[in-house]
């Protein structure tokens, strides 16, 4: 019995740890494309359900550290470590927002003047001492190209045009059908009205159409 309770307790602790653990996100796109010579934002955010205390974040490119910073608390913006404070290649964007709901923190990095050598995998790793130095990371790939490819929307436009044409044709058919039914209904009513009027005239004339009632003078006594 004691063993069962111990197992339940361990399972509860494990679920609690998973709930409170750090979560790092580097966006949904596994590959980011950038034009040669432009500045590129490398996305990274992390969540902590129990708050942070001098959370350290480390950026690496091809498994080599390129930047390191810290978020002191929920009310402070990320700051670079002293050795990266005057980096000419990487910097923290000046317009980074404060934490969202005191749970989500933005530690994105700005890559300046990207060149072809900057292509490759980038990893954002976060450590939070408040969660017993729990750490988590996210990785994506950057590809620096000469020119960004334009998305060809020709096929999409053709499909939308065909679908729009079909829908328009169906609407036209429905309207035509409704108009024809309306005309037939009016014609039917007119015929019924004529038949009814003719029947009334026959009744007033005392019989079939064309019949006449001979009027004879009364015999004299």
UniProtKB/TrEMBL annotation:
The chain crosses the membrane at residues 158-184. One of its GO terms (cellular component) is voltage-gated sodium channel complex. PROSITE patterns: IG_LIKE. GO terms for biological process: cardiac muscle cell action potential involved in contraction; monoatomic ion transmembrane transport; regulation of ventricular cardiac muscle cell membrane repolarization. GO terms for molecular function: sodium channel regulator activity; transmembrane transporter binding. Residues 195-205 have a biased composition (Polar residues). Pfam families: V-set. Keywords: Disulfide bond, Glycoprotein, Immunoglobulin domain, Ion channel, Ion transport, Membrane, Signal, Transmembrane, Transmembrane helix, Transport. It comes from the Eukaryota. Residues 1-21 form the signal peptide. Its main location: membrane. Residues 194-221 are annotated as: Disordered. It is found in: Membrane. Residues 37-141 form the Ig-like domain. InterPro entries: Ig-like_dom, Ig-like_dom_sf, Ig-like_fold, Ig_sub, Ig_V-set, Myelin_P0-rel. It is a single-pass type I membrane protein. This is Sodium channel subunit beta-4. The gene is SCN4B.
